[in-house]
Amino acid sequence: MGLFNAVLSLSGAIDTDVVEDERLARHTSYRIGGRAALFITCHSYHALRRAVEALVREQVPWVIIGKGSNLLVSDAGYNGAVVTLGREFQRSVLAEDGVTLTVGAGAMLARVVNAALSRSLSGLEFAVGIPGTIGGAVSMNAGTRDEWIGSLVEDIVTYKPGEGLRHYGHDDVFWAYRETGIPRDEIILEVTLKLHPGDKSEIRSSMERSLVRRRRTQPIGSASCGSVFRNPPDRSVGAMIEECGLKGFSIGGAEVSPLHANFIVNNGTATASDVVAVIQHVYEKVKETYGVALKPEVKFLGF
To answer: pLDDT band at 43, cuts 50/70/90?
Structure first.
């Protein structure tokens, strides 16, 4: 592994910040995780391409993350490079038609939702309160059981390492609940959303209702990764876990939320091992009770 050579290649490179031995707990909503050998922030497309090419050339394992809102990092960390998108990937541009919004993949979803509200554009109300970046939201088709961000996507630009830029129209991509057909070996750089004009007061009211509902039913403010498991077809995984009597179940500092059973929260002292143990217990209990093998929504790094 050429970590040393990779650092030499990238240190001082334009639009690139390189940090060695970075604590990943600082970069996840779980506030859990060991250290990454390298943490690289790329502020432009050329910086990203240069960084990935250097990592591939030096045979350094690498992964790209957004804001770590659905990520659980091992206590041992990640013996490779974690890459994240910086300045150039946080911009947004509204087209002349007044409804087509092009956003960099590193932009926070919350900022885009608020930008749509300020311009009286409707369509993103369901996304209020969902953490993370636009790139992360599109890669997992974030949303509710009934509304997904994929329905608003008009165009996607990705980077395929070794090949360059690729473009996808909405109909080029398979969209489903918590799933897209965007190739996993490509990095989302930019997303174009098609919104529609609306009444600002109605948009704001809809967002406020959604926020009230989230705050009433989810442990907003607690350290978590959001929903841990995907809902099986026509079932509520939260209800299934609750019916197994697992609300409040804990191991170490990790607990099944008493507010919503599909959230596992870090009560302040949880390790990644604690969270994994709780996830495993919930999985086994639900399978034993219902015969359903739950699929994790949370992503794992370093395990």
So the answer is: very high
